[in-house]
Predict the 3D structure of the following.
Amino acid sequence: MPESSSAESPSASAIPSPVPWSPSVQLAMLLINALPFLHVVVVIAAAALVPGVWAKAVVILGGIYLVPPFCVRALCAWRPIRPGSHALKSPDFLHWWLSAQAQVLFCRFPFLEEALRMVPGLYSGWLRLWGAQIGRFTYWAPGVVILDRSLVEIGDNVVFGAGVRINPHVIAEDDAGVVRLHVAPVQIANRCRIGGYALLTAGTVVEPGQTLKAFTLSPPFTTWRTGKRARPAIPH
């Protein structure tokens, strides 16, 4: 008696899903991935050409902290990042990917941002250079991580606990099971308190006066009001 076909072939769950990117998109992503390294190399090379210790320090600090925000501002002025859900092979995805890679240096080396938080108001001002909207009297506890700095809108008198993560993008399945990029600003209104190690993802809206508990997980496009959350349909 012949063996069953199920014993001869792998199950459907064992078959790897196809790569969602075409070769051309993969090549573009690889080239964009080289930008952070090239950025550091150019800054070091420029500092080496400048005489004097103080001049070198100015070139290094300016090159690290000022060039990326202005590049992202120029990129978004030319073509704003469109909120919604985008296919991973779409121009919208590559446009967002370019913006993300311009910021990756500060994700790889978090101490660069922690140093700015030592001076009251300096970190909020630096985020504004990226295009973020930051209100007055914002408190940043140690370990706060922000991705997509141009997609953050924060009101007045907002307190962030230690280790809070703000991720204005998520790559995940949509309601149809298709993996897509979900990207939208994270909006936090006046007088909110965000508990330590909370994770706020794409399109999260926290209405005025809300307090989110520690370790809160906010799925994409969630609105928080009266201590509860609602998750509307993801826009396309």
Observations:
- The helical segments are 5-8, 23-33, 35-49, 53-65, 67-78, 91-108, 111-117, 122-130.
- The first helix runs from residue 5 to 8.
- The longest strand covers residues 169-173.
